[in-house]
Design a protein that fits this description.
By secondary structure, this protein is of the alpha/beta class. The chain is about 40% helix and about 15% strand. Helix 5 packs across helix 7.
Length: about 300
Amino acid sequence: MAAVVQSDAVGELPTSVEPLTRPVSSGVRRALSGLRPVHTPGRVFHSLDVDLPLLRDGITVSTVHDLSVFDTPWASSALRARGERALLWRALNRADVLIAVSSFTAERIADIFGRGAHVIPLAPASWATPPSAEAVAEVRDRLDLPERFVLQVGTVEPRKDVALLAEACAEADIPLVLAGAGSTGPDAPASAHGLGYVATAALPALYAAATVTAYCSRYEGFGLPPIEAMACGGAVVASAVGALPDVVADGALLVAGHGPLAWARTLREAADPETGAHLRERGPIAAGALSWEATAAATLEVYESTR
């Protein structure tokens, strides 16, 4: 078995997997690197994103995470949207077998491309577990966190709508803390407290420390961050869009209306001690219904079906 990976990810592979390295790159260079022919003895080539080589023997499988470049082209530059649409269009038309990470994404594939896809959900990372009280106290102190706060983790970008969340937090009178790329930059709301990049090891304690972890997304093909926050014992509130209602199940509160008043009302509800305790109890249970073992087993079944 072999895997095509960028050189900085070789250490993440099991020792039984042979790495086929590519230079670390992004944008156009990464896209061109993904088109390079791959010659291995394997019967199946599985692309975990949209990279299908120009030349490849055997069956090709492609996992599709979302169709955001078709559904929300306004969320990125026109040049980037055109490039990513071209890559996705090619993968979805050339792959022999498609896997979608959610029923929502499978439905969008059928709507736009008229193709069926096997639905195989993702799962929380191995680090996403409830932290100790000592770890929570350490993160609170080191990051100088407010006593009560709403947390959103992720890149500050149009689809995450942190501006609306900041407005809702002001209405609910709860401070907003942002973590991730852009959280200290010019696109972050001035009223938010930006933490910048937070190491993965500190995320469980940060989720547990937050009064509410919010995901004010306008579109999600799956929604892995909310699931990981739930697995860490966070009280999660998420937009009722895309795949999120199915993914979070009964482990989070959903906001149906994408407006500041609806969000403020739900944030207040989740910040109530009794409701928050219920969410912290239900979150790990709902997230625990997803596992990488189940994802791997379902993916193997797809491989076997191509024989």
